[in-house]
Amino acid sequence: MKRSRKRIVISFNSPVILSFTAICFAALILDFITKGATTNTFFSVYRSSLLSPWTYVRFIGHIFGHAGWEHFIGNIMMILVVGPLLEEKYGSSSILLAIATTALVTGLANFILFPQKQLLGASGVVFAFILLASFTSLREGEIPLTFILVALIYMGEQIYEGIFIHDNVSNLTHIFGGLIGSGFGYAMNKR
């Protein structure tokens, strides 16, 4: 009796998350090739003239730029773990909208509130995804305990670090990302 062999095929299972990862990787490679010029032009947000069209590109583009391999890997690993599950549950267009909203809100917040700071990286998206993921088991009239715990731990840590630890991390971006993820989680599960 002849056994049929099953072929294993690699699937493009999460188009938004995989495309996002590829763009971030390409931005990091370009950063090294251009010695930071592309990151400064396209992939970070900072106070610049509103007459420059690049200012508006950077409001979204900053989420693709990273300060190095460690920064890239830290953000992308979490996005690759959580993102495909969220994309499968909520759909590609909803996840793309969540990413774009997070990028725009965090980019504008940095531009307005921190004119001397340059912001880059996908950590706002990571926090949006973490809080969005905690809403996956939402039922009418209930708030998942996992959401409360995740919000307290992650958001509490960011508030604490924002007040007491002065490093190069944009805690406000993390907080805004978490709020956006929570809002999307509530809205998408209410439907």
Gyration radius over CA: 18 Å
Class by SSE composition: mainly alpha
Helix content: 55-70%
Instruction: Give the helix tally.
Output: 8
How far from one another are the termini?
52 Å
Q: Mind describing the biggest β-sheet?
A: none
Q: Quick check: average pLDDT?
A: 87
Identify low-pLDDT runs.
none
Question: How many strand elements?
Answer: 0
> Which sequence of SSEs, written as H and E, runs from N to C?
HHHHHHHH
Shape: globular
Short structural summary:
By secondary structure, this protein is mainly α. It has helices at residues 15-33, 37-41, 53-61, 69-90, 92-113, 123-133, 145-164, 171-190. The protein starts with 14 loop residues before the first helix and ends with a helix.
List keywords for this structure.
8 helices; mainly alpha; 67% helix; 191 residues
Write up what this structure looks like.
The protein has 191 residues and is an all-alpha fold. It is 67% helix and 0% strand. It is built from eight helices and no strands. α6 runs antiparallel to α7 (145-164). The model has no long low-confidence stretch (mean pLDDT 87).
